Structure formats: C-alpha cells, structure tokens
Amino acid sequence: MAISLSTAFTLFIGLAALSKGSDECVARDFGHGSVVCECNSTHCDSIGSDTLPPLGQFVSFTSSKAGRRLHRGQGWVQKGSTGLALRLTIIPYQKYQRIRGFGGAMTDSAAINILSLSPRTQDQLLRQYFSTQGIGYSVVRVPMASCDFSTRLYTYADSAGDYDLGNFTLAPEDTKMKIPLLQRAQALSPRPLSLLASAWSAPAWLKTNDALTGKGCLKGKPGGKEHKTWAKYYIRFLEEYAKHNLSFWAMTTGNEPSAGLLSNYSFQALGFTAEEQRDWVGLDLGPALHTSSHPQTHLLILDDNRLLLPHWAKVVLSDVHAGRYVHGVGVHWYLNNLVPAEISLGTTHHLYPEYYLFGTEACAGWSATDRGVKLGSWERAEQYAHNIIEDLNHYVVGWTDWNLALDQGGGPNWVKNFVDSTIIVDQSRDHFYKQPTFYSMAHFSKFLWEGSQRVGVSFSQKTKLESSAFVRHDGSVVLIILNRSLSEVQFEVWDPVVGFISSSAPAQSLLTLAWNTH
C-alpha cells in the first residue's frame, strides 16, 4: 500500500537510528498529533546522565509536539540582561515544599505486559524507568490484591470468618509477577525505591454487601472485630512483602473510598466517609501500624480526588487520635476541573502544613469522551505537565502515574476500564512504545531529585507559560516550563546568584533548564 512522505521519513529516521545504535528516538507516527519512540531488546533512546556543565553554563532539555524528545541544548549564562520583554526571575529566598519523588504503579496488568516481552526487552523497559540512564522513577505504587487492572477478583484472605487471618496468603500475581519485577527495578535503581501500597477492597466477608465490587463498607463499627481485622490485613501485607526484602515507604488508607459509597460501582471498592476513616485510623489502623514491626511506614489518608479537600482533611486531621498516626494526604487527578487547586490543595496545606500532599494516581484516556490508548497524543502530554506543575505550585511533594505499562488496547482490565499508559507494549513484535506522557514525566522525575525544594518564580509580564522552579541539594537550579500555546515564546531567566539565561519555548513544548550556582 502507499505511504505518506512523512511516514516514509519517520521510518527512514528510525532505521537509521537502529543501524547506528544511537541513543536517538526511533519515531513512529500513529496519527494522534505527535510521535512515540519505539524500543526493542537492542535499542531505546536514552537521556543518559543528568550531569550539569560547570558554573557559567546551563543545559536545556526540550520535548515538543513537533517531535523533539528531551532534546539537549547548552549555552552560556550572561552577566547582563538580554533585553527580552519577558523575564522569569528565580526567587531563592521564597522556599516551599521539598520533593519526595515521581513514579508509576506496578499493577497486575503492568506486570503481565512487562513479562509478555522477552527477557532482554523487559530489562530495557525497566531501565527506562529505574536505571541511572532512565528517567529517575523513585516511587512505585503497589495495589494490595486485585483492582480493575487485574484479570480476576481476589484478596489475600478470602476464607470467610478468618478474623485472625490464619489463611492470609499472597497471590501468584504477587509472588510470580509483581515481586520479582519490583526486585529487578530495585536492583537497577541507584537509590532505594519508595514503595506505596493501596488496597481497593477488603475481603467480601468483611463487607456489608458481601462482595468486592459495588456499594459496600466494612461491617460493624471502628474498634470492632471487622475493622481490626482489616487493619491487621495491612500489617500482614507489609510482613509478607518484607520476606522478599521489599519494604514500604507508605500505605494509603484505601483507594478512592468515595467509590464504595456509589450504587452499582463496577469494580473493587471499599466505602468510607471521612468520619469513618478518621475513627478507623484512630482506633484500628494507626495503633496496629504503630505497634507493628513496620512503624516507620507512612500513612496517607484520602487517596481520592482532590475535590474532597479540604473537608476530608479537616475531619481526619483535626482529630487528635487519628491525626497523630497520619503523615500525608494522597490525591488523584480525576475531576480536577471541578475545583481550583488553590481551594483544595492550597487550603489544605495552609490548614495542615505539617502533613504533606502527594499525588497517588493519574492516567490519560479515562474519560468517556477521550477513552483508551492514543499512541503519540501530545495533548495528553500537556495534560500531564499542566497538572504536575499546578500540583507542585500548590505544595504537592510528588506525583504517581498509574500503570507502568499497558497493551495496545489499554489493558488487560477485567471490567474493561481501558485507559492509556506512558509505555504501551506490543507483545507480537517484542517492542514497546514510549508515549509523549513518558517524556512529560521525565521532565520532572529525571531532574527533581528527592529533597529538591521549590522556590519562587516571578514573571515580568503576563504570559501563557506555566512554570515551577527548584533548588536541588547541591545548590543547582531546575526550572521547568510548559508552553501550551501555538507559538514560540522567547524569554530570559534571571537568577540573581549567577546571571541571565536567554531561552525560548517552542510552540506546544515542555522545557527543563538547569544550571549550577557554585
């Protein structure tokens, strides 16, 4: 069949890159506005080391709808102004939150897709996320038992009446898939991974509807045997994973507790009101975790959409019994357009600054009007970058994508809730595709090391640019800029410590600038 000139050019560039064994993106255009980068067992584009040039120079990384993927540039810091009308000024004395990390979720589906590849291609995929040549993922969310991105319904304690959890057993999905992959990811990572556990549903026999799905809460009341058994289930999960040398930085109180209050909810859920969660944490889960062999594991409440804030935080964190066991608040990105970030995230931070805010789930392709996988969608990359910048500018300390890998249909998913992912696996060709959203994540995860502190940025005039700035522990500065407009924007950056940087953000692009200050 006939192919277009653009498609032919893309194939030519891809074959050239493969033949040279270079680190360049092998671009493929599937007709969704931009390109993906294709990888296999022997080739994948790589950003490499994030080492900065010496004092007096800066480095830039650009990704764009036009096809750039972390394109590296370098320039000199000037002593005087360049005279450009738009100036972004770094304000280092305005100090805000410190970064915890960025990452994605090792769901059953993600594990199935990764393991569907040949061993060498699996290693290639894991390196893209976790190795020093990868994009710096340090957070991995791990579902406790099944969720919609599983191929079956199960928990670890499906024996009715087993209040002592004598029959608690990890599933084959854990022992044969997720745990081995997590161990491999940890072996590749230059730093300990921050594992984050979330449960979707309690065993059916502990629930009011006797089912894992649909509208249902825990039987009894906080302090009662059902609530204490559910808290014990959390501890047993930590203990079983510890046997495989995997420890958890944090656990959430349960995925989307509001979903379990909805009639006819289609997949796994466990309903809690804020008041019920407060009492369960204060009477059961908090004390159980505190007296367990894993008291250092953090506890995050909510793990649901930010529109529930600040009300949810007020109910739980204002309670002296519950609040003392909690470290942070987990938020999902769905329905964000229904409530401004300042009203939800900002107000929560100002009310409870001692508790951190953490993004625990996001994905593209989830809405009925924009469903499933779109290979090469730049619009979705912009959605990611916009939300991450907005979250960071409202005190969020990290951001977790959903599935680490899905197939070309956006699954598997037992309830057919198909969505998109930053990496899409093509098992038949033993290839995988890195989506534009992968590079969106990279502009943050690669450069915002744990401990990086957000600082102020001011604009000399109104602009369409969105930005967030950070000082890393070695004193270097990272400035991330999103340009969603259809035209290039020229600007200068003034860092009072070192001088002026002249730069430009191409149309529909994401730009990371970084430089040393001493």
TrEMBL record:
Compartment list: Lysosome membrane
Pfam family, one: Glyco_hydro_30
Source superkingdom: Eukaryota
Gene3D superfamilies assigned: Glycosidases
Region forming the signal peptide: 1-21
UniProt keywords, alphabetically: Glycosidase, Hydrolase, Lipid metabolism, Signal, Sphingolipid metabolism
UniProt GO molecular function: beta-glucosidase activity; galactosylceramidase activity; glucosylceramidase activity; glucosyltransferase activity; signaling receptor binding
Keyword match Lipid metabolism: yes
InterPro entries named among the record's database cross-references: GH, GH30_C, Glyco_hydro_30, Glyco_hydro_30_TIM-barrel
GO biological process terms held by the UniProt record: autophagy; cholesterol metabolic process; glucosylceramide catabolic process; lysosome organization; negative regulation of macromolecule metabolic process; neuron cellular homeostasis; protein catabolic process; regulation of macroautophagy
Protein known as: Glucosylceramidase
Organism, as annotated: Esox lucius (Northern pike)
